[in-house]
Amino acid sequence: ETFQQPLRAVKIGRAKYSHLAQINIRTGVMTVSKYSLGANIPANAFRYLILHELAHFLEANHSPRFWQHVARFCPDYKQQRQLMQVYHQQQVTFAENRVKP
């Protein structure tokens, strides 16, 4: 609804450090790290993450124009980005410290 781009599928990935999410513009497939998902994630932070990836349909890089697209739908994107990064790191740390049977 926001950027009106052809998102064809969403996959769950396992990236711990490289990407919270990524989008393949050619195939229209978004991959979201499983560490970026969960019941405790702030909804606005997750919304920012999705908007960030969708904005890459309009701008492939992180230029000022890219951030203008993100800000159009998420004016507090800097705060939401930080929340998303903190949440992701907490999930990775929790997973790494879990005792395996």
Which key features would you list for this structure?
101 residues, alpha+beta, 3-stranded mixed β-sheet, globular
SSE arrangement:
Layout: E1 9-13, E2 21-24, E3 29-33, H1 43-55, H2 64-73, H3 77-97
Parallel strand pairs: 1-3
Antiparallel strand pairs: 2-3
Q: Major beta sheet, specifics?
A: 3 strands, mixed
In whole angstroms, the N-to-C terminal distance is 44 Å
Total count of helical runs of at least 4 residues: 3
Strand order of the largest sheet: 1-3-2
Strand content: 5-15%
Number of strands: 3
Helix content: 40-55%
**Assembly state of the chains shown:** single chain
Please identify the structural class as seen in this structure. alpha+beta
| Global shape | globular
Rounded Rg = 14 Å
What order do the SSEs take from the amino end to the carboxyl end, as H and E?
EEEHHH
Q: Low-confidence parts lasting 5 or more residues at pLDDT below 50?
A: none
Compute the average pLDDT.
90
